[in-house]
Amino acid sequence: MYNLLKGKKGIIFGALDSNSIAWKVAERAHEEGAEFVLTNAPIAMRMGTINELAEKTGSQIIPADATSMEDLQNLVDKSQEILGGKLDFVLHSIGMSINVRKGKHYTDSNYDFTHKGFDVSALSFHKTMNVLYNSNAMNEWGSVVALTYMAAQRVFPDYNDMADNKAYLESIARSFGYFFGRDHKVRVNTISQSPTPTTAGSGVKGFEGFLAYAEKMSPLGNATALECADYTISLFSDLTKKVTLQNLFHDGGFSNMGVSDLVMDKFVDEE
C-alpha cells in the first residue's frame, strides 16, 4: 500500500458483490487510506451483499436511485455530512439493459426498455455530476470516473443498446468534464475496461466466448476487476492531476489490435 488516497473522501456507486469492479475499487480505496460512502439502488442492494463490504471498509451505505435528482441530492448532502467535508472522488459504476435481460434483439428493441436503460446507464452520470457541480461538493483536483466499454466505438453485436449507452456516457464525461475542470478544477474520465466476469457483464449473450477471444487478441491478456481497481485508484490520486476528458483504455492492448497470432492460428488450423 502507498497511502495514495490518505485523507481523501468519496462516493462509490455500484458495488453489488465481490465480483463487481466497484467492490474491488472500494477495497483498494480503503487500503490506500480513503474514506467513502457506498451507494446503490435499493433493488440492487437487496440482490447483493453490500453490507459485508461496508463492514469490511468501515463505510456507511446510502441507498439512492441514480436516476432521481432528489435521491442524488440527498446522497451528496449526506455523504458530506458523514465524511466531514467535500468529496475528492466519485466512481460511477452502474449500468443496465432491460432489452438484454429480456432477450430483445437490437433490431427489435422495446423502446420503454431502451429509455430506462439509457437513464440508468448514461443519463445518471450527467445527473450525478449536475448535483456535484451545482452543490460545489467536490474539492479542487477531485476526480470523477465512470466505467465504460469499447462497444461505444466498435460493433459487438450482442452488447445491444448498452453500446449506445456507453457512447453517450463517454460524451458526457467530455462535455461535463470541460465545465467541471474550468470552474472547479475537477477531473472527469472514463475507463474502457476489458470484458470482465462481473454479474452485469456475464449477462451478455456469448460472454464466455468473447472473454476467451479478447484474451487471445490482447498482447497482455484481459485486465481483471482488481487491476481495473488499481487503475481507478491512480485516477483518484494526486498522481494524475492533469488527466481529464479522457476515455482511457484498460484492456491489455485489445483496443489497438487488428488481429493476433493466436486468433490467426485458429483460423489457419480450421482451413
The value of Rg in angstroms is 18 Å
- CATH class, anyone? Alpha Beta
What CATH calls the topology is Rossmann fold
**Strands ordered across the widest β-sheet:** 3-2-1-4-5-6-7
Helix content: 40-55%
Strand content: 5-15%
Fourth-tier CATH superfamily name? NAD(P)-binding Rossmann-like Domain
What is this structure, in a nutshell?
The chain has 271 residues and is an alpha/beta fold.
What does this structure look like?
- The chain has 271 residues and is of the alpha/beta class.
- The protein has a single domain, classed as Rossmann fold.
- Helices cover 46% and strands 15% of the residues.
- It is built from ten helices and seven strands.
- It has a seven-stranded parallel β-sheet, with helices on both faces.
- β5, α7 (162-184) and β6 (187-193) form a beta-alpha-beta unit.
- α4 runs parallel beside α6 (111-134).
- It is globular, with a radius of gyration of 18 Å.
- It starts with 8 loop residues before the first strand and ends with a helix.
- The mean pLDDT is 95.
How are the SSEs ordered, and which strands pair?
Layout: E1 9-13, H1 21-31, E2 35-39, H2 42-47, H3 50-57, E3 60-61, H4 69-83, E4 87-92, H5 98-101, H6 111-134, E5 138-148, H7 162-184, E6 187-193, H8 207-217, H9 225-236, E7 247-250, H10 261-270
Parallel strand pairs: 1-2, 1-4, 2-3, 4-5, 5-6, 6-7
Helix pairs in contact: 1-3, 1-9, 4-6, 6-7
